[in-house]
């Protein structure tokens, strides 16, 4: 349906197409990568998916530490990738610069906001790609595009030189086509990842009630095929309690970082982003204050449940990727249901990894694993051990 040239054109931003290699040797000298266009690379502009920002911004004078790590390890930067406008999106749709292609399901969206990064990796234009994750921006595109994707523990990797969207949630992560590459990148940031003892798998059984029945009936057996696991109740307080905790906190963060910029007279914003920034300006202070306390309570419960060796197993997204021409109403419903799944790690500041699990209606469907604080290495080791076990168990429907 789409040529490789068209997929590449839509995955990468025009102002960040030139390549860069800082050193010739290093542990990643055989790998290429891309960086989301929220991440500063010295000499490149960071447009954040917005035409005003592209016009007004000067080229960055320094490279974000998170991107400097692979560059100094010899990895070859092939370019900067497309993002939802100011990272406000779950689908990868950008009305200013168009929507990247999902190479695994071309009629459907690639997921966002790390949309171009996911498209570039899935189309084999690079070996891995850096992205950011606030409310699912690595995990969702990884699921939609059939990739491995890691959201790191909040605060563990520097976000300096990266556009702040919601600072109490923003994290750095990366996507790859295989677990070994994902782990190799992780070892740059965390050091050697030794062979961990088997994780204590905890099946979030009620989370599998969120996807439509035909997806849950395919994904749940794949999860259970991984071996012994204990069923637990994730949403003990109710799904809406989690969402009512997440919304005011993220919106308040958004207003603190991008409110003044977004409200500048004459600012060019898509209607969806303008509406979101307006909503962020009207957060009820009482709901915000209550959410701060609720977040800590939810975090305490989940961290105690996971301990040092527990891993929560749950769906990554609630449904197949929406079609590229899906109406806005369908996108809103999708976002709320998937956010019920992605807000868990975001609120509790925990690492989460997506693994390609099954295929339904020719679309990849991801399975997720959440570990306790600083459990990033445990997840990377687990993903490598699982290897091809889940794809082998996939059931077409």
From TrEMBL:
InterPro entries: Amidase_CS, Amidase_dom, AS_sf. Residues 24-193 form the Amidase domain. PROSITE patterns: AMIDASES. It comes from the Bacteria. Gene3D superfamilies: Amidase signature (AS) domain. NCBIfam families: PRK08310.1. This is Amidase. It comes from Bradyrhizobium lablabi. The lineage of its organism: Bacteria, Pseudomonadati, Pseudomonadota, Alphaproteobacteria, Hyphomicrobiales.
């Amino acid at each position: 349906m789409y040529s490789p040239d068209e997929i590449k054109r839509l995955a990468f931003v025009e102002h960040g197409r030139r390549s860069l290699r800082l050193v010739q040797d290093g542990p990643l000298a055989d790998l290429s990568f891309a960086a989301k266009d929220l991440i500063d690379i010295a000499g490149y502009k960071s447009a954040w998916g917005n035409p005003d920002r592209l016009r007004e911004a000067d080229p960055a004078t320094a490279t974000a530490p998170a991107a400097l790590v692979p560059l100094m390890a010899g990895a070859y930067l092939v370019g900067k990738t497309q993002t939802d406008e100011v990272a406000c999106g779950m689908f990868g749709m950008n009305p200013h610069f168009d929507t990247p292609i999902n190479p695994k399901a071309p009629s459907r969206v690639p997921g966002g906001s790390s949309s171009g990064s996911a498209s570039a990796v899935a189309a084999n234009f690079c070996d891995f790609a850096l992205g950011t994750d606030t409310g699912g921006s690595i995990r969702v595109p990884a699921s939609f595009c059939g990739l491995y994707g890691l959201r790191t523990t909040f605060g563990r990797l520097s976000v300096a030189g990266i556009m702040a969207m919601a600072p109490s949630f923003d994290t750095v992560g990366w996507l790859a086509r295989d677990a070994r590459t994902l782990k190799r990148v992780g070892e740059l940031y965390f050091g050697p990842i030794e062979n961990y003892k088997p994780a204590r798998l905890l099946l979030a059984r009620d989370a599998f009630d969120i996807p439509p029945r035909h997806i849950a009936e395919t994904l749940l057996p794949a999860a259970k095929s991984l071996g012994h696991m204990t069923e637990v109740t994730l949403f003990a307080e109710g799904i809406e309690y989690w969402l009512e905790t997440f919304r005011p906190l993220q919106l308040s963060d958004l207003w603190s970082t991008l409110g003044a910029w977004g409200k500048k007279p004459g600012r060019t914003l898509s209607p969806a982003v303008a509406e979101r920034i307006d909503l962020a300006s009207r957060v009820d202070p009482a709901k915000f204050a209550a959410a701060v306390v609720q977040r800590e309570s939810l975090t305490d419960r989940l961290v105690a449940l996971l301990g040092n060796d527990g891993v929560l197993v749950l769906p990554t997204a609630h449904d197949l990727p929406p079609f590229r021409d899906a109406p806005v109403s369908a996108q809103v419903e999708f976002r709320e249901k998937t956010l019920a799944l992605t807000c868990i790690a975001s609120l509790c500041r925990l690492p989460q990894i997506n693994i390609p699990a099954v295929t339904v209606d020719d679309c990849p469907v991801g399975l997720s694993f959440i570990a306790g604080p600083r459990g990033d290495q445990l997840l990377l080791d687990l993903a490598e051990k699982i290897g091809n076990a889940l794809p082998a168990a996939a059931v077409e429907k």
